[in-house]
């Protein structure tokens, strides 16, 4: 029952936060220099003042900012995210088309990063001063420090050009489309490079985190007790240490979700992954306000949802937090 | 590993090339071509949208009254013949009788009339059809376009890139044509029909079996993949994942594609677009309101160095407002050959005296972000170059295109790098930069230089309606000499657009509109290996 109340409270907070996000996004985007009508009029190569005025009226840009904001909030409340100036389509449709690809990329990278990162961390924690441990440390620092688009370009040149074994752009073979299981394999092949690029950044963080926590946990009294009882080392690690060690990882997963999403946008551009990344890019360049605001809003929804879910998972795996909530 | 592979590919390529003449007859139809494009189309209706992204598919989907060859000659397309009245006040088109839209409806004069009026009312290029008064349709296959004044640019405006013929039975529904859902599911009468569009990912064009030209198109399918990263595009082309990369402008990218053994790289097919890269002056701001200062800057900048060194010889120089590929271009203009002494003399004459630090004046230079080789690098080069004559330049970066456009369109700049297209006829793409009437605050690519010369206005007005080609050419020649002498703009180069094609392809689009014309003649002389 407590958990239900807790979640309800979180949802109320989330709603308030989303409202703030909407207002803040609106203000930030409208404060940026440049004007969508100018971009559209520019393409006309000398539009008249009448045409410019008509465009402004058509998109409601002739009202004051406050009026525009209120209209926008009212529309969003009724599920209307507006009409894209650039793509000439309702924004919601555009986003729903692109969202699955971004989620797919983000989640596959996240899972890869957590699993591989944790494994590397655990392995290197067992001999903190060993060669393997140092190797993992150096690699993780490099992975973390390198800008994600640079890593992407490097992988693109490596596996696309020098050693061309993987597809470098798109989500599936569109010239010779596959069906059934072959399609799944095809998509997985296309997923490797973008997912690896994004995962590399996060593997670094999870392996560092796992290493530090594992070293910490392994020096705890209950581990010494377990070892003293003669329990095999593998059981000690998996059964006794891992669960406790994972709690900080879960927290970080939740906190990292925003970064993951931002990284996905960059990776999508490098590998032409048909998610929201390109949409954001195009709408920024065209000052396509409705599209941009909706993309940011949906990203915020996902990040907030991720945080709430993390919070719940956190409570489920660590009974002490549940007790503390009482 | 790599060298072995390329040797093998090269050997196979050579063998195929040797056998090609025999194969070309065997394999003249069928097959798929994959085009890579960084440009995401808004929609597919070129009647209400300008630009490369829409024109590329629109010219495949929609047929138009005329098409053009490599030498600027109009050729029959939907119109099998046409004539212009003696007084130049009407143009009559005689349509082919066997053209049908992709839904089976015949293409008639009503569709052509509807399309012309729709384009006149909605197309971004307002000057293109401004002279059209009304369109008469005496019978289903005759169209008479009545003009308010002679309009020699009209024939060029009937090109596929500018005048797609829309089906009246679909679009004449009273809805706003710019947001009509049919723009995303277009029905045209062109060689290919759109069969699939995955937003932001790819679109597929399939052969239209009932296309009115017998034996065309030769290909079965064109897939246009939307690739956002130019590096991924180049790698994909080298691998053969993509058969055509259009509009490559980066000089390093061009050089890399030229080295790829499987590709042919050409700069043909951009004559009508006429993309010019230039330095524009705000002629209303001191000290740039003095023509001598602008001329001095032109003399102090070294066009040869820019074209040969900064652009690695990939770009051609341009010296005037009409792109060198146009028959109307005048070569005999002041070229502002590099001359520091002359520049200093002009600046002295203009009264710009050097201060204690040798600085005569300080000014800003802007550039369009995102095209470094054509824009930022030249701006930076000019900064160091103009220092030699005592002009201190501050390079002002803009975070993105709208930020730059805001500054320039509101005349809030001293000098800016810019890229502007000719679009075939001066009336469509050149006049806008120089007409006094087109000084319009808030609109980019209008006369943002605020250049005003009554003689130029008069010449452009006359040339726009002059129907005798020689006289028209003479008027534009005088216009070009005056503008270059007045120097509201220092012309630098043609944007070095190139297209890369897979070696096995034949029937390449090298006409003046290049890839923005129907690809109905394109075929695989040597099919690619799967």
From TrEMBL, chain A:
UniProt subcellular location: Cell membrane
Q: Does the keyword Electron transport apply?
A: no
Q: Name one GO cellular component term.
A: plasma membrane
Q: Where is the ABC transmembrane type-1 domain?
A: 99-310
- Transmembrane in keyword set: yes
* Superkingdom to which the source organism belongs: Bacteria
Query: Could you tell me which SUPFAM superfamilies the record lists for this protein?
Result: MetI-like
Q: What Pfam families has UniProt attached to this entry?
A: BPD_transp_1 (PF00528), BPD_transp_1_N (PF19300)
**Sorted UniProt keywords:** Cell membrane, Membrane, Transmembrane, Transmembrane helix, Transport
> According to its UniProt record, where is this protein mainly located?
membrane
UniProt topology in membrane:
Multi-pass membrane protein
The residues that cross the membrane are 12-32, 101-123, 135-160, 180-204, 246-271, 291-317
List this protein's GO terms for biological process. Answer: transmembrane transport
Protein family according to the UniProt entry: Belongs to the binding-protein-dependent transport system permease family.
What is this protein's record name?
ABC transporter permease
User: Lineage of this protein's species?
Assistant: Bacteria, Pseudomonadati, Pseudomonadota, Alphaproteobacteria, Hyphomicrobiales
Automatic annotation (TrEMBL), chain B:
The UniProt GO MF terms for this protein read: peptide transmembrane transporter activity
Q: Which InterPro entries match?
A: Peptide/Ni-bd, SBP_5, SBP_5_dom
Cellular component, GO, one term: ATP-binding cassette (ABC) transporter complex
Identification of the protein by name: Peptide ABC transporter substrate-binding protein
Solute-binding protein family domain mapped to chain residues: 74-429
Query: What's in the keyword line of the UniProt record?
Result: Signal
User: Predominant location of this chain?
Assistant: periplasm
Name the Gene3D superfamilies on file.
Dipeptide-binding Protein, Domain 3, Periplasmic binding protein-like II
Transmembrane regions listed in the UniProt entry: none
Q: GO BP, one example?
A: peptide transport
**What family does the database annotate?**
Belongs to the bacterial solute-binding protein 5 family.
Which interval of the chain is the signal sequence?
1-26
Q: Name one Pfam family in it.
A: SBP_bac_5
Q: What subcellular compartments does it reside in? A: Periplasm
């Amino acid at each position: 029952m407590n958990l239900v109340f807790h979640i309800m409270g979180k949802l109320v907070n989330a709603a308030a936060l989303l409202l703030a996000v909407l207002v803040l996004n609106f203000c930030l985007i409208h404060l940026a220099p440049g004007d969508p009508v100018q971009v559209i009029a520019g393409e006309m190569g000398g539009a008249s003042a009448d045409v410019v005025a008509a465009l402004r009226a058509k998109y409601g840009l002739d009202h004051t900012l406050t009026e525009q904001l209120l209209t926008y909030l009212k529309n969003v409340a009724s599920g209307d995210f507006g009409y894209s100036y650039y793509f000439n389509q309702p924004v919601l449709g555009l986003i729903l088309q692109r969202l699955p690809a971004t989620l797919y990329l983000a989640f596959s990278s996240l899972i890869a990063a957590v699993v591989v990162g944790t494994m590397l961390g655990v392995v290197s924690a067992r001999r903190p001063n060993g060669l393997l441990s140092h190797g993992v440390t150096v690699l993780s620092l490099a992975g973390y420090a390198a800008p994600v688009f640079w890593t992407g370009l490097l992988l693109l040149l490596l596996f696309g050009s020098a050693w061309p074994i993987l597809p470098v752009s798109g989500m599936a073979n569109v010239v010779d489309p596959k069906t059934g299981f072959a399609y799944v394999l095809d998509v997985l092949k296309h997923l490797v490079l973008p997912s690896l690029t994004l995962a590399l950044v996060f593997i670094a963080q999870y392996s560092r985190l796992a290493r530090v926590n594992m070293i910490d946990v392994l020096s705890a009294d209950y581990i010494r007790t377990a070892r003293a009882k003669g329990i095999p080392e593998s059981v000690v690690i998996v059964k006794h240490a891992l669960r406790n060690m994972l709690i900080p990882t879960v927290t970080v997963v939740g906190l990292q979700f925003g970064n993951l999403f931002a990284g996905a946008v960059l990776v999508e551009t490098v590998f032409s992954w048909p998610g929201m990344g390109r949409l954001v890019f195009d709408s920024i360049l065209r000052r396509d306000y409705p599209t941009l605001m909706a993309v940011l809003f949906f990203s915020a929804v996902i990040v907030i949802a991720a945080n709430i879910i993390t919070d719940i998972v956190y409570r489920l795996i660590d009974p002490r937090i549940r007790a503390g909530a009482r | 590993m790599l060298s072995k592979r390329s040797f093998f590919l090269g050997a196979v390529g050579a063998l195929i090339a040797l056998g090609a003449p025999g194969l070309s007859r065997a394999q003249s139809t069928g097959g798929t071509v994959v085009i890579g494009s960084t440009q995401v189309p808004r929609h597919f209706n070129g009647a209400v949208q300008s630009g490369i992204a829409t024109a590329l598919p629109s010219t495949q989907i929609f047929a138009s009254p005329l098409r053009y060859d490599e030498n600027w000659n109009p050729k029959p397309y939907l119109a099998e013949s046409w004539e212009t009245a003696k007084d130049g006040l009407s143009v009559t088109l005689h349509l082919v009788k066997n053209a049908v839209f992709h839904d089976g409806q015949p293409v008639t004069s009503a569709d052509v009339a509807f399309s012309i009026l729709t384009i006149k009312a909605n197309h971004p290029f307002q000057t293109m059809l401004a002279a059209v008064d009304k369109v008469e349709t005496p019978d289903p296959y005759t169209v008479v376009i009545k003009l308010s004044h002679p309009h020699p640019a009209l024939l060029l405006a009937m090109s596929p890139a500018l005048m797609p013929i829309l089906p009246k039975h679909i679009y004449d529904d009273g809805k706003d044509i710019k947001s009509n859902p049919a723009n995303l599911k277009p029905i045209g009468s062109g060689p290919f029909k759109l069969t699939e569009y995955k937003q932001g990912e790819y679109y597929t064009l399939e052969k239209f079996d009932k296309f009115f030209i017998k034996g065309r198109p030769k290909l079965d399918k064109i897939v246009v993949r939307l690739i956002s990263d130019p590096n991924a595009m180049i790698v994909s082309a080298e691998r053969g994942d993509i058969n055509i990369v259009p509009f490559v402008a980066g000089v390093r990218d061009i050089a890399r594609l030229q080295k790829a053994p499987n590709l042919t790289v050409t700069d043909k097919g951009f004559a009508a677009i006429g993309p010019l890269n230039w330095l524009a002056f705000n002629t209303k701001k001191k000290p740039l309101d003095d023509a001598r200062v602008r001329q001095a800057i032109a003399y102090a900048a070294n066009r040869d160095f820019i074209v040969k060194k900064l652009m690695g010889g990939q770009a051609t120089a341009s010296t005037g407002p009409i792109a060198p590929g146009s028959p109307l271009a005048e070569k005999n203009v002041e070229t502002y050959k590099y001359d520091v002494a002359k520049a200093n003399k002009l600046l002295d004459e203009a009264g710009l005296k050097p201060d204690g630090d040798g600085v005569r004046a300080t000014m800003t230079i802007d550039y369009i972000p995102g095209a470094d080789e054509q824009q930022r690098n030249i701006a930076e080069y000019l900064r160091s170059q103009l220092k030699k004559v005592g002009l201190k330049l501050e390079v002002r970066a803009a975070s993105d295109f709208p930020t730059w456009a805001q500054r320039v369109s509101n005349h809030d700049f001293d000098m800016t790098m810019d890229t502007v297209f000719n679009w075939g006829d001066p009336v469509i793409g050149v006049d806008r930069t120089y007409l006094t009437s087109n000084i319009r605050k808030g609109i980019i690519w209008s006369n943002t230089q605020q250049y005003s010369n009554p003689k130029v206005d008069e010449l452009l007005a006359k040339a726009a309606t002059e129907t005798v080609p020689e006289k028209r050419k003479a008027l534009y020649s005088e216009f070009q000499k005056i503008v270059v002498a007045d120097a509201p703009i220092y012309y630098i180069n043609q944007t070095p657009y190139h297209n890369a094609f897979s070696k096995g392809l034949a029937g390449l689009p090298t006409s003046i509109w290049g890839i923005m014309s129907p690809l109905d003649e394109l075929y695989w002389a040597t099919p690619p290996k799967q």
